[in-house]
Amino acid sequence: MTLGDQGAYPVEYRIAHLRERLAKEDLGELGVRVELRGGTVLLTGTVQTAERRGEILRLAHAEFAGLPVRADLVVAGAEPPARHEEIP
């Protein structure tokens, strides 16, 4: 399938390239899935911060210019609790 070819790069190669960037660069995001569904690039998974989610979306929109991108990325609440938990 070569839907969304950008130059000589089919969308499958662009998906693989984004997966590699997410895993190897400063992001280190292994929990984000990137796949093509019905002509739309879908990103799913959990990320640590809203800033990281924004960076991933920026990378995805740049990589898939001309294709719709949908993101179902959940931001994990990694903040410590505000108070101690009382265990009876």
Give descriptors for this structure.
88 residues; alpha+beta; three-stranded mixed beta sheet; 2 helices; 32% helix
Q: What's the topology here?
A:
Elements: H1 11-24, E1 32-37, E2 40-47, H2 50-63, E3 69-75
Parallel strand pairs: 2-3
Antiparallel strand pairs: 1-2
Helix pairs in contact: 1-2
Describe this structure in words.
The model is unreliable at 1-5 (pLDDT under 50). Strands 1-2-3 form a 3-stranded mixed β-sheet, covered by helices on one side. The protein is of the alpha+beta class and 88 residues long. It contains 2 helices and 3 strands. Strand 2 (40-47), helix 2 and strand 3 (69-75) form a beta-alpha-beta unit. Helix 1 packs antiparallel against helix 2 (50-63). It has helices at residues 11-24, 50-63; strands at residues 32-37, 40-47, 69-75. The protein starts with 10 loop residues before the first helix and ends in a 13-residue tail after the last strand.
Concise structural overview:
The protein has helices spanning 11-24, 50-63; strands at 32-37, 40-47, 69-75.
Strand content: 15-25%
Q: Strand pairing plus helix content: what structural class?
A: alpha+beta
* Strand neighbour order, sheet with most strands: 1-2-3
SSE string: HEEHE
Number of strands: 3
**SS summary, helix count:** 2
* Poorly predicted runs: 1-5
Averaged pLDDT: 83
How large is the radius of gyration? 16 Å
Helix-residue proportion: 25-40%
Largest sheet: 3 strands, mixed
Could you say which overall geometry the principal axes of the C-alpha atoms support? Answer: elongated
Give the CA-CA distance, first to last residue: 59 Å
